[in-house]
Automatic annotation (TrEMBL), chains A, B:
Region of interest called Disordered, as start-end residue ranges on this chain: 310-333
Entry superkingdom: Archaea
Organism annotation: Candidatus Halobonum tyrrellensis G22
Name of the protein in question: Acetyl-CoA acetyltransferase
GO molecular function: acyltransferase activity, transferring groups other than amino-acyl groups
Length: 384, 384
């Protein structure tokens, strides 16, 4: 079977933006088509990853607006929502549209506009994804993160400092990402002395509220060769859920959605964790980087924190994690994040990552919705 | 290639329901699995067609809630939104998941919970899908319908009564649909004397605000045969957009999205309009039934109204349209409607349509988002 190729990618400046959702989506979409040298009328499917433009901005029907703004009519459009993993879900939808033979050119644009709302308003929208039996008792996503961090540190004898070092590493990486929301280093002391949010986690253990968008262009590999010499392939992709009620999980330090989705992706690619050269993990909270690192098979359960402590996930380490700066410093516009993760590994495997470049042929992106409620894992490989 | 089969289908009672969106989705999902005799742990992909659970009910993450409620974890889940054509978009997503080889069993559940909001609140959410350059001048979907109806009647010398006869026919069909919101006939006089909404259209030219859900279960045909002798196949499916700004259309009586999406569906199926035995059209407004009838190739442009006048689209006519009662009498829970259309043609081609049964091997469902902004056309055929 023809493999699914990625022939273009883009992301906008992440941060506090003056544009509305339509403007953000159009900016990334246009840049992605430019990057690939593909005209809008070659696009036959157009997917938008977005969680909540209606709730945040009172604007629905954004895929149709984007088809208009890009001059891509009559391309088919739809919006894919999987909360904070909408970008991964959109990547999966785009992959399916090409792999099913329905599309010869699918543009995926993920975006969210959030910073015009207060943090309380924005997090209220996000909290509406959790199960009422937990939400109504005040257990929201940051609370889950705090509880899980405490359990992890206790269970695996990990020092509190190891979590802080995730933030330090990802901020250091973000300095070299021109699109990142925060291009500034933070010291371990700054992380450990920032205000408590959900004990033991502090402000600098959390990603910010962000506006931004990112885009990817997909087609069959045979078509890709007609347009460009530089492309990558999606060699594996999979998605899976975990319990919607977080306290029902037998071991809250294991993210079943990560385990199952990556098993599907590895099997499709004919690869294992040992083959991955670079990865973007969903570090919405620092603790999540440890859990995903382990559940993707990069370390034994309870050993993930040591990789950070020992510098093995640094940019010059054996398996660089979040070379983009991660959600932590790059920012987390919900619908954009999964697309921006795939953007980063695409840039890495095609050798276009600039100051962030590492030696990589196989990249992996793990995009987490809710508190692991739904996860998509994507493997991007350099074309031969 | 293995064709994509439909092995089960269900719909709930449409109307004013006490349940919330989660309850509605679970009800249709469970009934669909029961219909097919397939256990929830056989489901690997679970799609939810829904436009606005966040806006209507403050509830997001409903696919994860549904995976929980159906015991379908760790099946992959996502929400597909294409405004009022979310159900058709979900059908296309489900088809892609199977046709791409990613899934061996995909459950699609479409639903919307709307009646707890006032008509003004509900229509405000719906109006947010239109382009601001029209919406801000008060041109909402009912206005487009009125303007288009006036143009159509004038351009093609059609009598106002012909529009009323769409309502009369679809209400008559709805009497025999146990799931329909309105199981009552209306007379032509009642339609023509109901309150004016958007001249020349009156209240009975419009579908109601509705709660409800519907579901379909998809798998490769080779897998279908392991589960059941009774299944149908999706032999053709396609989607397309029209201008987001309605007044930019060169001829507002032609719906380009219907033309293009049906061309794709016919081509995939190797069929033409003359092969279709029964069809569900998106009669959100009576005028839309004429436009789709023509743009699907069932009549020449400007001739569609004659088919209704002459009884050719009645249940005992040569091409029965909206045997379910259509959106007009069955109701229109946004995310459910496209799924319920496919449910009806599935029931027809598998011979399970009860009192509504017509002689049909090939059924077509045309699901329209916005004012034709995005359209999905699906062809369902009886298996050999």
């Amino acid at each position: 079977m023809d493999r699914v190729a990625v022939v273009g990618a883009s992301m906008t400046q992440f941060g506090q933006r003056d544009a509305w959702i339509r403007g953000l989506l159009a900016e990334a979409g246009e840049a992605c088509l430019d990057d690939a040298g593909v005209p809008p009328d070659a696009v036959d499917h157009l997917y938008v990853s977005n969680m909540a433009s209606g709730e945040f901005e009172g604007q629905t029907g954004v895929p149709n607006a984007l088809a208009h703004d890009l001059s891509a009519i009559p391309a088919y459009t739809a919006r894919i929502d999987q909360t904070s993993s909408s970008g991964g879900a959109g990547t999966y939808a785009a992959w399916q549209s090409v792999a099913s033979g329905a599309s010869e050119m699918t543009l995926l644009v993920g975006g969210e506009k959030m910073t015009h709302r207060s943090t309380a308003e924005a997090t209220d929208v996000i909290a509406s994804l959790t199960h009422p039996c937990e939400y109504k008792h005040g257990v929201t996503l940051p609370s889950f993160a705090g509880l899980t961090a405490r359990l992890y540190l206790d269970e695996y004898d990990a020092p509190r400092e190891s979590l802080g070092k995730v933030a330090v590493k990802n901020h250091r990486n973000g300095v070299d990402n021109p699109h990142a929301q925060f291009r500034k280093e933070v010291s371990l002391e700054e992380v450990l002395e920032s205000p408590v949010v959900a004990d033991p986690l502090r402000l600098y253990d959390f990603c910010p509220i962000t506006d931004g968008s990112a885009a990817l262009l997909f087609c069959p590999e045979s078509v890709a060769r007609e347009w460009t010499d530089e492309y990558a392939v999606i060699s594996g992709i999979g998605g899976a859920t975990d319990t919607h009620v977080v306290h029902e999980r037998p071991d809250p330090t294991t993210m079943r959605g990560v385990v199952e989705s990556s098993e599907r992706a590895y099997e499709m690619a004919g690869l294992g964790p040992e083959d991955v050269d670079v990865a973007e993990l969903h570090d919405m909270f620092t603790i999540l980087e440890f859990l995903q690192f382990e559940d993707l098979g990069f370390a034994e359960k309870g050993e993930g924190w040591k990789a950070v402590e020992e510098g093995r996930t640094d940019r010059d380490g054996e398996l660089p994690i979040n070379t983009s700066g991660g959600l932590k410093s790059k920012g987390h516009p919900l619908g954009a994040s999964g697309v921006a993760q795939a953007y980063e590994v695409y840039e890495q495997v095609t050798g276009d990552a600039g100051d962030r470049q590492v030696d990589a042929d196989v990249g992996l992106a793990c995009n987490v919705g809710g508190f692991g409620n739904c996860v998509t894992t994507t493997i991007v490989e350099a074309a031969e």
